[in-house]
User: What shape does this take?
Amino acid sequence: VQLQASGGGLVQAGGSLRVSCAASGRTFSNYAMGWFRQAPGKEREFVAAISWSGHSSNYADSVKGRFTISRDNAKNAVVLQMNSLKPEDTAVYYCAARWDTISTSSYEYAYWGRGTQVTVSS
Assistant: This one.
């Protein structure tokens, strides 16, 4: 499955951004989807994940209550809505897909898209 993330940008602290991931190539609805991020000098970290059906989701503690992951299997898309953004949310955001249940481990995702930069100014 091929993934393409988009929608990043620059926003002030407290603002909102919506990043999207478009999938192609295989049956999108068979895959759990995740969002990860990597800030300069830091390791890639888990942000959020959603099951193939959309009925289950998981969030990193650092974004819980501020970020919402959703998917539209008819459109082969997954979206991460980010509200109340903080400067520490600044990173490159990556979407990823895995066959099976959701996971918080980047090692368990076989497919990755190119990232999209999110910058939150203070």
User: Anything to note?
Assistant: The mean pLDDT is 95. DSSP finds no helices and eleven strands in the chain. The two ends are 37 Å apart (CA to CA).
